[in-house]
Structure formats: C-alpha cells, structure tokens
Amino acid sequence: MASAGDNNLFTGPIGEEYDFLPIICPNIVTLTTNLGATVAAWRPGVALRGLEIGCGTGTSTRSLLSQRDDLSLLAVDASPAMLNQARENLASYAHAGRVEFIESDALLYLRALPDASVDLVASNYAIHNFDHRSRRELFAEILRVLEPGGLFVNGDRFALDDHDLQLASTQADVRNWF
Q1: 53 with 82: CB under 8 angstroms?
Q2: Closest CA to 32 of 19, 44, 43
Q3: 52: exposed, middle or buried (C-beta count within 10 Å: 0-12, 13-18, 19+)?
Q4: What are 72-122's pLDDT values in tens digits?
Q5: DSSP letters for 27-68
Q6: CB count, 10 Å around CB of 168?
Q7: Distance (Å, rounded) from C-alpha 139 to C-alpha 38?
Q8: Could you tell me the pTM of the whole model?
Q9: What's the angle, vertex CA 74, arms to CA 158 and CA 7, rounded to 5?
Q10: What is the pLDDT of residues 42-75, one digit of tens each?
Q11: Which end of the chain is more exposed for a tag (fewer CB within 10 A), N or C?
Q12: 62 to each of 54, 55, 72, 75, how far by Cα in Å?
C-alpha cells in the first residue's frame, strides 16, 4: 500500500470477503462509530468536502455519511474488489451525489490534489498498512490538502516497518481471535 507499484494486500479472497473484519476485530465497530461521530460534531451546519483514505467496503464511509447529511466524500481505495462492494453497499449515497469512489493508491491520489482542497480527511483502519517512511509522506500530504483549520481524523493502529515481522504479528493476532 506504500506505493502503486507495491503488491496490494487486499486483492483476492481478503478483498472479496473483507466484511468479516468486525467478527475477528470487534473494536473496528467502535472505531467506525467514533469516526463518524467525530466528523458529525465538527463544524455543525457547515457543508463539508471530505476525503476518505482506504474506504474498503464502505463501512466507515457509511458511518461518516449517515451521521452527517451535509458531507460529501471522495472515497479512495486501491482494491477493486473492495470498491465494488462499497459501490454496492452505498449505492443510494452515490446516486445522491454524496460519495464518489476512486480506485487509486492513496498517496498517489493525495499528491495529485491541490493544496487546501478538502475540509477534512478521514481514515479508519487503513493507514497502519503504510510503512513508516510512507506514513510520514502521507501525513505531510494530508496536511497539505487540508484547508487551514481542517480536520484529520484517524481510527487505527500502526504496522511494524519490518513486513515479515508485521505479517507474523498479524497472523498471531488472527490465530488468537479464533
């Protein structure tokens, strides 16, 4: 996820069956609800333009949009399988013009945006997939595209820089969940 040339970890069965996440990681439900509530409470009554990094199947996108009627989102994800699910899950929001789904590497997409072009950037359980160097660049790009006084809200944990150690740690977590 660090760059467009890297292997996308969310293709194949993982991307196609990602809605299992709340079963194996129950705290994702709390993170998702809190993400939407934080955005809902910010600048009440002001129409907002937002960007969601790593929208996945649309679970966090739904939380954001359902808790804030005056929010429109650009929802970015690099996994076509997950975006297809998000489009299906949130068809009514897309039809109403409240969300546009974008297939892209998040960092590449951010680099292409103009300075101060969004009111808020949200992400939930996605940025942990970036290595340390890429996260630093991602955060710098987020700050650049936010309007002055804009909001960045992130519900997440962070990965280890060593890919093999991170994979082993994640696999151990999954084994413990079952």
Answers
A1: no
A2: 19
A3: buried
A4: 999 999 999 889 999 999 999 999 999 999 999 999 999 999 999 999 999
A5: HHHHHHHHHHHHHHHSSTTS-EEEEEE--TTSHHHHHHHHT-
A6: 12
A7: 19
A8: 0.77
A9: 45
A10: 999 999 999 999 998 899 999 999 999 999 999 9
A11: C
A12: 13, 10, 11, 11
Q: Are residues 124 and 97 in contact, defined by beta-carbon separation less than 8 angstroms?
A: no
Whose structure tokens read 């409240």? 98
Q: 102 with 109: CB under 8 angstroms?
A: yes
Query: Both tokens of residue 18?
Result: 């990602």
**Which H or E run includes 3?**
none
Start-to-end CA distance of the chain, whole Å, equals: 27
Beta partners for residue 75, in sequence order: 52, 101
**Under a CB-based contact definition with an 8 Å cutoff, are residues 1 and 125 in contact?**
no
Cβ–Cβ < 8 Å for 124, 31: yes
Q: Is 127 exposed, middle or buried (0-12, 13-18, 19+ CB in 10 A)?
A: buried
d(CA 156, CA 164): 20
Distances (CA, A) of 43 to 1, 37, 68, 138, 177: 32, 12, 11, 25, 38
Residue where the block lists tokens 């809902």: 40
What the block records as the tokens of 4 is 């467009």
